[in-house]
Amino acid sequence: MLISWFLKFLGREKTSEHSKEAIEEIAHPSEINAEIPQQPYQNYSDFCLRMESLVEQYCSNFSNRISKLEERPLISILLPVYDPEPKWLETAIESVIEQIYPDWELCIADDCSSDPRIRQLIENYSEKYDKIRADFREQNGHISEASNSALAMATGEFVALLDHDDFLPKHALARVIDCINDHPKTDIIYTDEDKIDESGNRSQPHFKSDWNPDLLIGQNYISHLGIYRRSALQEIGGFRVGFEGAQDWDLVLRLSTRIPPDRIRHIPEVLYHWRSISGSTARDIDEKSYAHKAARKALEDYFKNRNIDASLEAVDRFYWRPVYKHSSPRVAIIVPTRDRVDLLKTCIESIQSKTSYPHFRIVVADNESTDPETLRFLESVKRSGVETIRIPGDFNFSRINNSAISAVNEEIICLLNNDTRVINESWLDELVMHAVRPSIGPVGAKLLFPHDHVQHAGIVLGIGGIGSEAFKYIHKSDDGYIHRAFLIGNYSAVTGACMAMRKSVWREVGGFDEQNTPNSYSDVDFCLRCSENGYRSVFTPFAQLVHEQSASRGPDNSPAFDTAVSNMKQRWGDKIARDPYYNPNLSLEREDFTLSFPPRGYTTQ
């Protein structure tokens, strides 16, 4: 149920706390694509039209250099077939024949189609082309068995999956081969995709994240075009009967437990067109509601095989929220402040009245408050178990957090700005259940402005310069781009305004950087250093708070801000130029995942 997202936000004013301050952009598209004139996009049809000349240039260049490729593996395209409209099956087959990369074979498994035209069409192609092989199954077994029949015919080093009414652009396999040449040990490759209707109109592009294991639990964002090392598929027994409708999702989940992340590659270009016609899932996921039941089964099996104690809750009918079981460790909620009792009181009272999690205490990290009312309030809340740690000195947010974290003994730390207010009672349960997971570092919540629009749903590097908050300014009821605002997923960073983590992770990476990022971007820098140590940052929309954003301190215009920007560019320039969790076809000028043209880093060579 993909949305026509690119029409949703035209004309919205662009504003960003980070982008206001960071004027000089990192790896601006004009620097990467200096030979391509920068033009604003109008819509996806306009985007596709502009891409045509770039694709043609790539195709021409590929044809000239194909003889020099070190790796030219055979790719077996698996095409399970059952009673498609003949013209769409013919279009799918022709799209394979027209590939500019010639080393392919097409393995068609007809699953006992009732329409006699289908067999005749397939036989005609298999007789005409040596590279097209056909198997006519004697009884209908559904898509998993048909796919396995196609896989049994395959002889290629890699296999690609194609549905019987979809089609591939002519350079799809060429891009795949370039990826294999750049990364010969790759086992899984996936690409971006879009929809195409009966009239050939393209819409709803899905410009995907790079490998994003937490998002994969919520939705099968891998989908099409999927390419797999054949030996890896054989090792897991191919497609599983009983998972029809989610067989590809089940396949990726099982493979991901065996394949290291650096052998999973994403090509950020639309290389698959998903036919949107009556009766197809591309038109309406309700057409195949059994797929949702199969997805639950695949995910539950994935948890079971990995000994993960978790349950699943449906999100908007067709997506998923994992709920991980844990032992409810003690949590220190650290609230830095200086005066502003109006904000601090609201924050603490909301924690105390709206937190269902049983084991926490509130620690106020007081940075030289002098307001008498604030001091009286801090004294009064001692009776309810709120502790105050006095941290003298000039404002240095990293130092304040480090000092407070050092002073507490709890296993889990939750940093919380004094200008936040809890919305849902389970917010801390949600943060903790991710923070205790061994592979996870910082965990961030969904933060809303007081007017019910999103302030934070993860941080995307490069937007406006260093980075900005994903989906900023969309309404809280908006699911965002391909539902990501409503799903748990990985981002390069999450905001320190509400960040949970294990204290051991904080200690391992050396805490927040007091010298280079004393105030600005300390959270982003911390998350990126956690990533260097193998920990993923997670955003969850199921922990929600209101955030006034900079109400207590205001924007940072100090010399230290310039130092932080300079440090971020120097240390993390490659990450800022290419955020792995944000597609280069999407804009760095806005936070709403709208299109950018040309794609950053797009190469025609």
Architecture overview:
The chain has 605 residues and is an alpha/beta fold. The chain has a domain at 69-282: Spore Coat Polysaccharide Biosynthesis Protein SpsA, Chain A, CATH 3.90.550. 32% of the residues lie in helices and 21% in strands. The protein contains 18 helices and 22 strands. The chain has helices at 17-21, 29-32, 44-65, 86-97, 116-128, 142-153, 172-182, 213-218, 230-235, 247-256, 290-305, 341-353, 372-380, 397-407, 427-435, 503-508, 522-532, 559-577; strands at 75-81, 104-110, 132-136, 158-161, 188-196, 202-206, 226-229, 264-275, 310-315, 319-324, 331-337, 360-366, 387-390, 412-416, 420-422, 440-448, 454-456, 459-461, 467-469, 489-491, 498-502, 536-547. Strands 11, 12, 13, 14, 15, 16, 17, 20, 21 and 22 form a ten-stranded mixed beta sheet that branches. Strands 1, 2, 3, 4, 5, 6, 7 and 8 form an eight-stranded mixed beta sheet that branches. Strands 9-10 form a two-stranded antiparallel sheet. Helix 5 (116-128) links the parallel strand 2 and strand 3. The longest helix is centred in the first third of the chain and has 22 residues, at 44-65. The protein starts with 16 loop residues before the first helix and ends in a 28-residue tail after the last helix. The model is unreliable at 1-40 (pLDDT under 50).
Low-confidence stretches: 1-40
CATH superfamily of the domain at 69-282: Spore Coat Polysaccharide Biosynthesis Protein SpsA, Chain A
CATH class of the domain at 69-282: Alpha Beta
Rg over C-alpha atoms, rounded to the nearest angstrom:
26 Å
Oligomer: single chain
- SS strand fraction: 15-25%
Overall 3D form: elongated
